[in-house]
């Protein structure tokens, strides 16, 4: 708790002026009532002088829990263990304040110390109440998580005495939850088909050097001595060669849609679709690189695109992180209707010529126009494996919103029909579960 600041509101000057004014009118009008009434402001001025401090004592306790499907039943936070979540998750906060003094507090005003980076999307972190001794009040509100580590400040407290002329201000540290972390890792990102000729960790349908048995064939001159089945030779005198399932490296490209129409959220306080896509792409990239898969990033804007070639070295990681951070920091647009015209230039046409022939594509886009699904249809025709994570930026609480949502779902159905694996990211689902549902088991292309 910080030191208290005591301020006295001096209103005696106005009271004296009012007294003389009312008394003068009373004398002129010959009204005894006005002359007596002129003394009332003097009593008010006296109260402002003799007003005393209340010496209020309060105690605060804060609890937090994640909202939405997929959360642990015990998803609360303590002082020792910060609550964790994904960007866009909603966290419910309950801060209980108790009057632990022996006297009532006639005017108590509270503001919870919400981290400046996190918007309040429902409820309010403020309260103005009167509390008897031992009585409590609970402040309830919801916040939306943004990327980073966040810590609550102390609760701001302000009290006034009965006359309203003595104001005390101080801070009270709340017990319980005080920290939030929005940097959760993905446990695994299994891969589908698509491999090059370099050794790696993705099993293929080709024989070669590896650890898993693949087939037995007739011996050919030049086969390694260690690959000959000597047991069969001892039994049949026939030379055969054992082949193992070859493991190849696969190159992956995370394609992030950051065009102008992607910077919109379901409401003014919600994260834009482009920000959610960039967060999902960054977590996918980090996990794939950690597993040893060369991974690149492409950010597509309205007129051009920026890319980081697939790789696993520190330079690739740094460049990808910088690119995605730049995509996230672009200007947001909220609650703006989408209007798309057929004459606009398709920025995705340049992407197809830059993709490695064996690459797997992870597309992050909200699908609010036809460009992404047209790209998928072309890539699937060429044999590329495509996975989609599509954050939903549309609020369907109006006729216009419901129509936009219907059109968007139709585009996602087209992408599925083309052979892409699609996850429609409802904001109530944690990002980790969304990404695990997007990625399937390891198969070959």
From TrEMBL:
The record's keywords, sorted A to Z, are: Membrane, Transmembrane, Transmembrane helix
Q: Which residues cross the membrane?
A: 20-44
**What Pfam families does the record point to?**
DUF58
For whether the record's keyword set contains Transmembrane helix, the answer is yes
Recorded protein name is DUF58 domain-containing protein
Q: Where is the DUF58 domain?
A: 215-318
Show the InterPro entries listed in the entry: DUF58 (IPR002881)
């Amino acid at each position: 708790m910080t030191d208290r600041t005591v301020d006295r509101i001096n209103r005696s000057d106005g009271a004296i002026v009012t007294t003389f004014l009312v008394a003068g009118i009373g004398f002129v009008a010959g009204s005894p009532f006005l002359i007596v009434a002129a003394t009332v402001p003097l009593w008010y001025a006296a109260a402002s002088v003799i007003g005393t401090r209340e010496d209020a004592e309060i105690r605060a306790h804060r609890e937090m829990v994640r909202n939405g499907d997929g959360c642990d039943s015990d998803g609360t936070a303590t002082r020792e263990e910060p609550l964790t979540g994904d960007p866009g998750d909603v966290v419910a906060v309950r801060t209980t304040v108790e009057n632990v003094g022996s006297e009532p507090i006639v005017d108590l005003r509270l503001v919870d110390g919400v981290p400046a980076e996190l918007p309040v999307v429902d409820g309010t972190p403020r309260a103005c109440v009167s509390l008897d001794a031992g009585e409590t009040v609970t402040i309830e509100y919801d916040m939306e998580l943004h990327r980073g580590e966040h810590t609550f400040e102390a609760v701001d407290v302000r009290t006034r005495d009965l006359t309203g002329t003595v104001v005390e201000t101080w801070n009270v540290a709340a017990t319980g939850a005080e920290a939030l972390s929005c940097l959760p890792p993905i446990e695994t990102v299994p891969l589908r088909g698509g491999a090059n000729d370099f050794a790696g960790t993705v099993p293929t349908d080709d024989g070669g050097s590896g650890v898993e048995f693949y087939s037995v064939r007739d011996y050919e001159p030049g086969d390694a001595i260690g690959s000959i089945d000597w047991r069969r030779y001892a039994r049949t005198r026939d030379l055969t060669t054992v082949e193992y399932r070859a493991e190849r490296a696969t190159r992956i490209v995370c394609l992030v849609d950051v065009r102008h129409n992607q910077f919109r959220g379901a409401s003014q306080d919600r994260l834009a679709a482009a920000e959610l896509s960039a967060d999902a792409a960054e977590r996918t990239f980090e996990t794939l690189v950690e597993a040893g898969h060369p991974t690149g990033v492409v950010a597509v804007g309205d007129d051009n695109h920026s890319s980081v070639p697939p790789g696993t070295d520190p330079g690739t990681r740094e460049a990808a992180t910088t690119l995605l951070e730049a995509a996230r920091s672009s200007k947001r647009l909220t609650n703006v209707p989408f209007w798309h015209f057929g004459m606009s230039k398709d920025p995705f046409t340049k992407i197809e010529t830059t993709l490695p022939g064996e690459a797997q594509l992870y597309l992050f886009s909200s699908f609010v126009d036809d460009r992404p699904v047209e790209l998928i249809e072309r890539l699937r025709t060429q044999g590329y494996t495509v996975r989609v994570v599509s954050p939903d930026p549309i609020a369907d609480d109006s006729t216009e919103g419901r129509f936009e949502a219907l059109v968007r779902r139709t585009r996602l159905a087209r992408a599925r029909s083309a052979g892409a694996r699609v996850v429609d990211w409802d904001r109530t689902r944690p990002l980790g579960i969304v990404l695990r549902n997007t990625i399937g088991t390891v198969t070959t292309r």
